[in-house]
Each structure stands twice: as C-alpha cells, then as structure tokens.
Amino acid sequence: MRKIIFSGRNYKISSKDKIYITEKINKHSEFMQKSTNRSVIITENLNDHGTIRNFKVEIAVDMPNAFIKVESRGKEIYAIVDKLEVILKRRLKRYHDQSRKWLKSEPWKTIEFAEITKTEINEIDLPYNNYEPLIKRKIYENDPPLNPAEAIEHMELLGHRSFLFKNIENGKYAMIYKRDALGYGMIQPK
Predict the structure, then answer these.
(1) What is the CB-side half-sphere exposure of residue 169 using CA atoms within 13 A?
(2) What is the chain's alpha carbon radius of gyration, rounded to the nearest angstrom?
(3) If you write DSSP's letter for every residue of 112-123 in order, what string do you get?
(4) Fewest beta carbons within 10 Å, which of 15, 20, 41, 134?
(5) DSSP 30
(6) How many domains are contained in the chain?
(7) Are 159 and 187 contained in the same domain?
C-alpha cells in the first residue's frame, strides 16, 4: 500500500484527520494498485475577523499515463472528505474502466459531431484598457501526443473544463473543452 503524503497550508493536520482521510482513500485501493503517488493538501482560510473557518481539501493520485485530482471547499473537513471520496471513486473507476486504452492495447475513439454554423464575431469593447491578467500557476509537462478521446479522459480525471494537448492524428496542438449544452468541443488549427 502506497503511503499518502499529507500537507497543510495554514492548518496543522492532526493524526485523527490523517487516519480518517487514509481510511476513506484506501476504501478504493483496488483501483489505485498502480498509483505512483497519493497526496492530500488541506488549506484553511480565515475571514477578516478570524472567526469563520473555511477549508479546501485536495486529493491527488498519480496513475500511469494520468493524474487524478479532486478538490472541494467547506466548513467541515470530514464532510468535505466524504464528498470527495465519492468523486474520487467515480474518477478512479473511470480510469480503471479505460485501462486497456491507457495501456495503448485498445484505441481511443471519439464520435465527431459535424455541425458547421457561421457566426459573425463583432468587435467587443473591453471595459479595462490596461488590464493585465494574473497567471497564478504554470504547468510544464512532457506532452506525448494524445488521441482526442484520451485527452477528454485526462480532462475529466483532472476535473477541468478544458485541456490542451498535442493531437496524435495531425501532430498539432488542440484544445478540448466541455460544452454547457452537453458533449465536448475541440479547437485546433487547420
């Protein structure tokens, strides 16, 4: 059984917390036998007066060819962990169900929806002329080419709404994103 790495930000994780979280995560050990790393980060945020406690719990599991991450916020750590345990199980099962594809012994497949709509994009006046966005985090990864369906799985396992990847079909970078009206979209150069 791989050990879980705990870290706290503005919060000292007690041994009782570690035992509870470890039990919840290890409930799904059958799905995590091949994991290379497991980590839990608990962040405590206090309001201006220091009276209301708010926690953020992140659970991350490194699997071969994928990274699974779940996170949530709330006022009670154990309630957050209970909620995340259900989501983690669902993502681990999803990864496990696709294991033959992750190991490249079965091809990734997508269903393409060929609907072409022509819309004109009008110039939009931005409200902030000198706006400079703040990049809070940069991630650099080795980027083996992926099939679009595999990229969707990576995005879902991370819990993100979009994912940039190098398309194995043409060697170009593409963006997969989750559409509000169900399904996925893909943007890539011609």
Answers:
(1) 13
(2) 20
(3) ------------
(4) 134
(5) G
(6) 2
(7) yes
